[in-house]
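Researcher: Next entry in the queue.
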Amino acid sequence: MSKSGQIEKILWSIALPGLGQLLNGQLFKGLILIILEFLINVQSSLNQVIIYSFQGDIQLAIEETNYQWLMFYPCIYMYSIWDAYRDAEGETTPFSFLPFVISAYLGTIGVIYSSNLKLFGVLIGPVFLPILFIIFGIGIGVLIKMILRKMRFK
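Model: Structure for this entry, 154 residues:
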């Protein structure tokens, strides 16, 4: 598969979990991920929380969030991206899952602490803090993956 085809499937999966799987021909898995995404999105009030967050009303976003449901979102989101990446890639390199797993874990931690953790004295909220933690998790995952690969091939 061409590199642009791989990137396309990953980007569609970033846009909506499950779309990358549908493009990879995995209809059942893609539909399950889309249903889970919509269920978690609606139950956690994620779209309204995103609107409040982008409008700068972080306190209202925190009050509107159903954290019991939102905690599932980073895992579904990162699994969908990893699965589309893995299937589009065909064969994966050792430890290629680590950036996705660690970012899902840290994204969930970001959700947990998003109602009271301040960065530079500013409350970040339930949208932006998990995103920052996911980005941080990808970096940590890539670093650990590189270290483990070097140790494995010595």
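Model: The mean pLDDT is 90.
Researcher: Noted, moving on.
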